[in-house]
Amino acid sequence: MSGRRLAPALPVPGAHADLQRLAALIRLHAAQIDGITVTLDSHHRYDIAHPGYWQGRGDAVVAPFTPITAATVRAGDFSPARPEELNRTLAYLDALEATGRYTLMV
């Protein structure tokens, strides 16, 4: 532990405070904790969740942490950098949004 303060990077409201509470819980109960398992998701280099997959209106660069929905793609605000991916991309976004739980975050 360096004691160095880090700025939150994920645009999830309350997530940073949640992790601070989790860290405090771990410190408080460290003697009773046998282990902690951390998982990490991974993505392909060319992936729908990466900025390089996307372009904004007028070929604009899409910034990290940009939410993209099927509606914004249909409106022309965003499109896949490879036009041939449009139908597959819309099918993915429609299915993702149909769950009612997630919006794609680049």
Write the layout of secondary structure elements.
Elements: H1 15-28, E1 54-56, E2 67-68, H2 70-74, E3 78-80, H3 86-98, E4 104-105
Antiparallel strand pairs: 1-3, 2-4
Question: Care to describe what's here?
Answer:
The protein has 106 residues and is an alpha+beta fold. The protein has a domain at 51-105. The chain is 30% helix and 9% strand. It contains three helices and four strands; from the N terminus they run H-E-E-H-E-H-E. The protein has helices spanning 15-28, 70-74, 86-98; strands at residues 54-56, 67-68, 78-80, 104-105. The strands form two sheets. Strands 1-3 form a two-stranded antiparallel ribbon. Strands 2-4 form a two-stranded antiparallel sheet. The longest helix is centred in the first third of the chain and has 14 residues, at 15-28. The radius of gyration is 18 Å and the shape is elongated.
